[in-house]
Request: fold
Amino acid sequence: MNDTFVADENAAITLDLTGLKCPLPVLKARRQIGQMTPGSTLVVTADDPAAPLDFDHFCTTNGHVLAGNDAAGNLFTFTIIVGAPD
Reply:
């Protein structure tokens, strides 16, 4: 598990959550999103097999946009556009 935060030149935040199992990837992403402004981008990498369903449900129920959901082997990359806070 790396659990690292990296800002890129486009102000996107990258969160490496490999090695964590459900529900930790979504919980850590939720914590990071709580510190971000609406419209900003969070890119999450995870290797938990449940992550695709978990992040889809998380975004749908919390007003975020799952702009990307890519898989390369057992590694998943999710691009989330932060929605307005509740």
Remarks:
- The two ends are 30 Å apart (CA to CA).
- The domain at 5-81 is CATH 3.30.110.40 (Translation Initiation Factor IF3).
